Amino acid sequence: MKKIFALSLILALVWGLTVVQAGQYPARAIAITVPAAPGGASDMTTRIFTSQMEKILNVPFPVTNRPGASCSIGMEYVKNRAPDGYNLSYIPVESVMIRALGLTDLSSNDFNFIARAMTIPAALTVRKEAPWDTFDAFLAHAKANPGAIKIGNSGTGSIWHIAAAAIEGAAGVKFTHVPFEGGAPAVAALMGANIDAVTVSPSEVQSGVDSGEFKVLAVLGEKRSGVVPEVKTAIELGYDVKVLGWGAFAAPKGTPPEIMAILEKAAATAIDSDEVKKFFKERGFDHSYLNAADMTAFAKTQLAFYDDMIPKLGIVNK
Q1: Residue 158: which of 286, 310, 301 has the closest Cα?
Q2: Distance CA 166, CA 164 (A)
Q3: Residue 317 pLDDT > 80, yes or no?
Q4: Position 227 pLDDT exceeds 50
Q5: What DSSP state is assigned to residue 253?
Q6: What was the pLDDT predicted at 23?
Q7: Can you tell me the distance from the alpha carbon of 269 to that of 54, in angstroms, rounded to the nearest whole number?
Q8: For the chain, is the Cβ count within 10 Å smaller at the N or the C terminus?
């Protein structure tokens, strides 16, 4: 009888402690991992986001960069942390691509999403003297001359490589894909007339557009880009092409719903803040908030898209 009483007392104490801890969340610093190097879009987005989250939840949000293997190293680290709300991750578009690329079994399904913060659409860009002034004219030339147009991207299997491939699939054309070590070298090659076009972010071609050296023929986003608002999306032009980089935040799978609710509410306020909106606008990112449920649905759609698209490109890492 005494043993039963003692066991009941212990269980009651443990249950009570759990309730207190949940009620006090967050009670300490919340660590957040960026699965990319410092200074890029992932890192900058995370740091402006955490600066607001610290004000809202009144705890520190220390940021650690864990780059490598197309972002899988950092995401794998967070996936394996305790689902207690104290280890979060920035989740980039690579989370829905790396499984299809054969780099890892990890995917966006391994996380509980908190929110999406921003998107960066691909922008099909050519030089000012190019003979095409419209997306239709560009595609007509590509259709009449298979493989003649050389399009630069930020690396084989990158989101900007996928962008050009998606245009091929939607329009029934064929390009010659030219990979570079990042978007900036691809833009430099376009400036030097070494290639005919690029599919990179609007912000990466903005200076060339502003100087009149480049023209953007279409944006492959959900909506028009704030960088080149006069340029129509491919969808507006009649082509079902939507390829964009994006940034979201998530916790390990299995994080308790009551903790997720606190994080989701705080994230909505943080992402909607004037500071975050101003920051995104200055850097050419599109403010594109999605709540947890909508982001989860979006990620599943994206995962299915890349699982289908990437093997067709013949770039799977075996």
Answers
A1: 310
A2: 5
A3: no
A4: yes
A5: T
A6: 67
A7: 12
A8: C
Contact 262, 112 (CB under 8 A): no
Domains of the chain, with CATH numbers? 29-120+245-313 (3.40.190.150), 123-219 (3.40.190.10)
What is residue 315's DSSP assignment? -
In angstroms, how far is CA 256 from the centroid of its own chain? 25
Q: Across the chain, which distance is largest between two alpha carbons, in Å? A: 90
The whole-angstrom separation of Cα 44 and Cα 34 is 10
Q: Name the more confident of 132 and 16.
A: 132
What letter does residue 229 receive in the DSSP assignment? T
What is the chain's mean pLDDT, rounded?
A: 91
What does the DSSP assignment read for 12-26? HHHHHHHHHHHHH--
Indicate the pTM of the whole model.
Answer: 0.84
Q: What does DSSP say about strands 87-92 and 31-34: parallel, antiparallel, or unpaired?
A: parallel
Q: Cβ distance 227 to 129 under 8 Å?
A: no
Block residue for tokens 């032009």:
237
Q: Which two tokens stand for residue 82?
A: 């305790």
CA–CA gap between residue 81 and residue 87 (Å, rounded): 7
pLDDT above 50 for 16: no
Is residue 120 within 8 Å of 286, Cβ to Cβ? yes
The Cβ of residue 127 has, within 10 Å, a number of other Cβ atoms equal to 17
What integer pLDDT is reported at residue 8 of this predicted model? 45
What radius of gyration, in Å, describes the C-alpha atoms of the chain? 22
